[in-house]
Design brief:
Layout: E1 3-10, E2 13-19, E3 24-27, H1 33-43, E4 50-54, H2 60-63, H3 66-73, E5 77-79, H4 81-86, E6 99-101, E7 107-110, E8 113-119, E9 128-133, E10 138-142, H5 150-156, E11 161-165, H6 170-174, H7 180-187, H8 195-207, E12 212-216, H9 225-238, E13 248-251
Parallel strand pairs: 3-4, 4-5, 5-6, 10-11, 11-12, 12-13
Antiparallel strand pairs: 1-2, 2-3, 7-8, 8-9, 9-10
Helix pairs in contact: 8-9
Length: 261
Amino acid sequence: MIKFQPLLSSSSGNSIFITDDTTHILIDCGAPIRYIEKCLARLGVEPSCLSGVFITHAHSDHVAAAGTLTKKYNIPVFATEETFALSGRYLSTISRKAARIISAGDDIIIGDMVVHAFKIPHDAAGSISYTVADSDTKFGIATDSGHVSNEIIENLSGCESVIVEANHDVDMLIGGPYPYPLKRRILSDKGHLSNELCGELCVTLAKNGTKSFWLGHLSEKNNLPETAYRTVYEILYSKGYRVGTDVALNVIPKMWIEDKI
């Protein structure tokens, strides 16, 4: 059975631990290495026991500690060619042997788990996301996507649990402190999903069998956990899905362990 624990999730850092109790991986590593080490220690996992770090894209909140972690513990890094090229100093220290170039559509077998990469519409070249499956369960993640693409729906359909992006409340973003070019970027088709778009995606996935939704990558300036939860809750309810009965709905906290990063 696939199990997961988000280590942190926000516009300032992201990393998800995934295991089947035998094989362990990380999706993204966007936090100082000491924080990742502290989280793994709480899980009872030695960093050297990780079978791989899978990077979604080159933005620092997803890749910041990947090079340091993998070099220190001799762990392979899986990412697209574009992500390696754009990550600069974050991945420049890893050996050629540790760098595993993958592409959207690839299936990577890690122990008894199959990690599938699929394309995500974001403004970093080579952006991908992942599903992780074994013989019993399938888990998926889709954050940092400017719109709900066919690839997202096709790949997340059939997942029992998903992490999906509820990045911003549109009114908070428009009326907030960000400069206009940044607001425009976030609202673009290669930016980030709003709470409303996230809710619509959850409805589509619920129709295809998903039972557990985890809202992630919330903006620290343009969203609130209760706002994201309420918006998605109401959209699910309006389409006949009862939270707590038909589906589960949770908001991932910014950090799993309280720490200064």
